[in-house]
Amino acid sequence: MKRIYNSLLLLGLIFIGFGCTDDFEEMNTPKDSVTEVEPRFFFSDMVQGVFANYQRNVNLYPDFYAQYWASTGSWAVSDRYEYKDDWIGNQWKEHYTQFNLESNTVDAQFGDKPAYNDQIAIKNIWMVYWWSRMTDTYGDIPYFGVSNAETNAYDSQEAIYDDLFLKLDEAIKSIKNDETQALYGEYDLVYKGDVAKWIRFGNSLRLRLAMRISNIAPAKAQAEAQAAIAGGVMTSNDDIAHVPMWSNGWYDYLHQMAWYWDNIRVAKTFTNYLYGQSSVGEDPRAPRWLSYKVDGKPLTKEAAGKATYEGLENGLDASMPSSSAEVTGKATIRLENGFVEFSGDGDKNAMFCPVMYYSEVLFLQAEAALRGWTSGNANALYKQAVEASMDFVGVNAVDGDAYVAGLNDLTGSNEAQLKQIITQKWIANFPNGIESWADFRRTDYPDLTLPYDGVSGNASVAADTYVKRVRYPDNQHNLNEVSMPSALNTIETDRMDIKLWWDVENTKAKSGGLMNSNF
Predict the structure, then answer these.
(1) 405 burial class (0-12, 13-18, 19+ CB within 10 angstroms)?
(2) Which position among 27, 43, 56, 387 has the lowest Cβ density within 10 Å, counted as fewest Cβ atoms?
(3) Can you list the positions of beta strands (E) in 146-256?
(4) pLDDT tens digits, 364-374
(5) Is the peptide bond before 431 cis (omega within 30 degrees of 0)?
(6) Residue 276: which H helix or E strand, with range?
(7) Which residues pair with residue 278 across a beta bridge?
(8) What is the pLDDT of residues 137-183, one digit of tens each?
């Protein structure tokens, strides 16, 4: 199942199914020709999209903005908050002309066939994930009734979120999970056709999105969070949502950027948080995640003669040569015998790309408890979340337990406790930069640092200000400015320091390291 082959096949079959007039189709279509494509083929392609064009769509933007990774070369202008259309602009094109098209095609061909009810419901849950990624990247976007055309009306992020909650609720409730339903089976790369796990993922996604709007619409957020938890969220690491990459394929993923191409190193901000969070000192996940690259070989910090795993500062000055010791002496990905996401499962899967970890769901429940939305114990859930991360990363139980025992309990004001929760959540979510960038914008935790030179060269982000969104792609400015939000409908006004609907406060409003806007 090679993704490129599947995409070409699907596009060809879509053309066969929709590219002719009714009369022409009746006269010229052989009786045994293929005019419908099973949903499983579309769905497999849509799921693999999480790592398609990963460098341009994710690593050069959310991964840098979450400060998990930093660029080793002056060419990566995005690490200094610059926009480059032929990089992340691909995300917009791929979403609207591929994934959304495939979703609509499944609905058109199978929406009235009862046997495909569960497949369509699962596809709809996945599309909520895709749409949330899109609106959390840009803000207001074309959503309701969008077509494959270049010009579509833009909808408010608030209205989009309202509909995403409705879609999740409808999809989860509609699932039959009985013998009448066709299954995705092996074409379901996330859960292998396990419908119960899709229900738990759908509810967990609902909880994630509920917490996203906690500061702008707290009553709505509380109701959605409670409904999600009551419906049943992830219960163990067996429920995590991540997408495999086969060992005999080529993939645009972190192993290419961090190891084979040397385009990135782990960020200094991230490695700093791997020390001093617990009384044990070094986070025991560090050697599972990271290594040093010496003469082309992966080495532990001890073998490399280092006292710690050291990261690279984000946004280094453009004159910094990529071959300098400042760059090559920093820690990078550990590809062998480490974290399953980077090392693979020892079988046919060489790597996995994260969508949602079980630890994230526990952190979300800890925050819900802190807000008084559930009867759970925030501190206990917080500790359980760290334990779940330790287990999934592959830390031995003794070291994991010692780290958790060495963490401070949640103490102080609600803001102080939230900062503790989000900081540990940010660590545990590595390398899911998409989610961690969203969390930082929502809560302004953990404490990140501005890029080295501080100012975007194209003035899209003001000095001493964090990037808050990605601007709309050039083709929208060239063809569809009339539909854009009026405050963003020129290149000059479409700035990347403008907050999204659910982002209520400027990070610079921190006092004593805390915000006053999360409760």
Answers:
(1) exposed
(2) 27
(3) 241-246
(4) 999 999 999 99
(5) yes
(6) strand 275-278
(7) 281
(8) 999 999 999 976 667 899 999 999 999 999 999 999 999 999 999 99
DSSP H or E segment with residue 355: strand 349-356
Using the structure block, give the residue that is written with the tokens 């000055």: 317
User: Which residue's structure tokens are 């895709």?
Assistant: 130
Q: Two tokens at 36?
A: 């419908």
> What pLDDT does residue 150 have?
66
User: How far is it, in rounded angstroms, from Cα 195 to Cα 100?
Assistant: 22
Instruction: Please state, in angstroms and as integers, the Cα–Cα distance from residue 351 to each residue in 44, 338, 491, following that order.
Output: 17, 11, 38
Banded model confidence at residue 431, pLDDT cuts 50, 70, 90: very high
Report which residue type is found at 244: P
CA proximity to 199, closest of 227, 171, 166:
171
Placement of tokens 């191409």 in the chain? 261
Q: CA distances (Å), 324 to each of 79, 216, 268, 315, 489, in order?
A: 18, 45, 16, 15, 41
Are 189 and 476 in contact by the 8 Å Cβ rule? The answer is: no
Q: Are strands 290-294 and 264-266 parallel, antiparallel or unpaired?
A: unpaired
Peptide bond into 451 cis (omega under 30): no
